[in-house]
Amino acid sequence: MEEKKTINFTFVPDESSDVPRVYSNLCQIQHSPFDFTLTFCDMIPPSEKDIQTAQNTHVVKAPVRARLVLPIALIPTIVTLLQENFRMHQEAFGPPKGGMH
Questions:
Q1: Hey, is 25 helix, strand or coil?
Q2: C-alpha span between 59 and 40 (Å, rounded)
């Protein structure tokens, strides 16, 4: 009988890749039975034209900067990690100032 070997390892981001940093101040979340889709947008202050259009349509479009589709199995881990990191951020910097929270 062959003995199975166990190898422990940790996944880490490969910072040598040239992936651009994307800023987002708006996130829309949708889900299906299989995954969650997070759509990240950069909501810039609307122009006069945007405001006039929104008066009729009640819609202001925000440019999509990134869209992530995540399997359901990953969501509990992401929620836990966000909560833990937010707690550490508040301990270091205090509660959020301004904006939505």
A1: coil
A2: 17
Q: How far apart are CA 45 and CA 48, in angstroms?
A: 10
From residue 75, how far is each of 38, 72, 80 by CA, in Å?
11, 5, 9
Q: Over the stretch 54-74, which tens digit does the pLDDT of each residue have?
A: 999 998 889 999 999 999 999
Ranges of each domain in the chain: 26-93
pTM: 0.74
Q: Which residues, 6 or more positions from 70, have their beta carbon under 8 angstroms from its beta carbon?
A: 35, 36, 37, 38, 78
CA 93 to chain centre: 21
Is 62 strand, coil or helix?
coil
